[in-house]
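Q: Give me the 3D complex with farnesyl diphosphate.
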Amino acid sequence: MYYNELPRHVAIIMDGNGRWAEKIGKLREFGHQKGVEVAIDIVQQASDMGIPYLTLFAFSKDNWKRPQNEISVIMNLMVESLKNEFQRIVESQVKINIIGNLNDLSLEVREVLDEIVHKTADHKGLNLTLAISYESREEIVNATKSIVQGVINGVYKIEDINQRLINQNLYTAELPYVDFLIRTSGEQRLSNFLLWQLGYAELYFNEKFWPDFTKEDFESALSVYCQRERRYGKTGHQMKQKIFATQ
Ligand code: FPP
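A: Here is the predicted complex, encoded as structure tokens.
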């Protein structure tokens, strides 16, 4: 039974690049290289399917704790793929946004990110958000600081603080809440990713390492989503009545 149309906003934790490479006796870097190729395929697929919003966890704040060499490889892959393969994708009107603490990034990375964001700003297709040097708790702390500052400056009163105002002060202010979260590699945790935005998301965990994740896996994950009944606290009976009422 299908309850839902395709999700409006899909978020993905692309996990398992390192383990995938180690499993086949290669360096972790090789896994990241393959991981970028898969990310590009999935972005293209989401764009072709008409999914409006896709957010990818490309690099977490905690990833800065990795060996310097691995960090450099990931940053280089990001820069090179955004300069090359992503240019093909953006031709299909993909619009790219970045969330995270961009002050942590080198000038070279920031310039490449700025360029692609600027270049795609008017695009009307898939809205692709890359989370880079991102962590959800930091995002919430920053939103809190900016709201408190607004209260001190007289822009808001305490009574104005509600869910909408908090949402407007997150990096994702322009995005709808996430409908569907996919995480690969068999790990079942959120790892500080979009904690507020995932409040009512359907969660989907796949055993495959990210480099093995295919377009078909993406389609079957979406099919699982369509078969989930999202009740938002209501009963199944109430939800059915709502479906009939709108037919
Ligand atoms: C998770 O695998 C992946 C990462 C930490 C980084 C992935 C990011 C990229 C490959 C760059 C993507 C760039 C763009 C522009 C989309 P892991 O290393 O945590 O794997 P493990 O859990 O097996 O160690």
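A quick observation: The pocket of farnesyl diphosphate is lined by residues 14-19, 32, 35-36, 39, 56, 58-59, 63, 74, 77-78, 81-82, 130, 185 (CB under 6 Å).
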